[in-house]
Design goal:
The chain has helices at residues 2-6, 12-30, 45-53, 74-82, 92-98, 116-131, 134-138, 148-169, and strands spanning 42-43, 57-63, 88-89, 106-110. By secondary structure, the protein is of the alpha+beta class. The protein has a four-stranded mixed sheet with strand order 1-4-2-3. Helix 3 (45-53) packs parallel to helix 4. The radius of gyration is 25 Å and the shape is elongated.
Length: 170
Amino acid sequence: MKIAQKYRSETKKEKKQRWLAQAEKKASGKGAVFTVRPPVLSAEVNIVTTLVENKKAQLVVIAHDVDPIEPVVFPPALCSKMGVSYPIIKGKARLGRLVHRKTCITIAFKQFKEDKGALAKLVEASWTNYNNRYHEICGYCRGHVLGPQSMACIAKLEKAKTKEQATKLG
């Protein structure tokens, strides 16, 4: 979360100060000098989804306590498909504080020129803990165990196959 603190979005006061400084430079006769908006985190599901689909997101952070659960069901699947790492952290309020809101479901880190090493370590850690275990985590709730009717049906089909092969061979 320390790296995320560095790339928080601007508050209204900070944005106003940036605009006032820009207006003062313009009024002093230096011409229209535009200040570049600093790189920030991207928030909310629609924006994060677009970044992942366009392969501009390097890391997607997802909150665990979202209600209803539907908005956060598909980002892990999309991230694993597109090759983007995604940690799931505790508390949507913690993510909300990063983007100056009460709560936030997801945030995305884009490619930042600064802190490449720290971001790479974070991506690698989340890749090993979440992305590489995606299929293991998805199948955990059912355990890939078939019910008794399915087992009986499969046994019946296998028995019929072996009987058919025995008649063909002689």
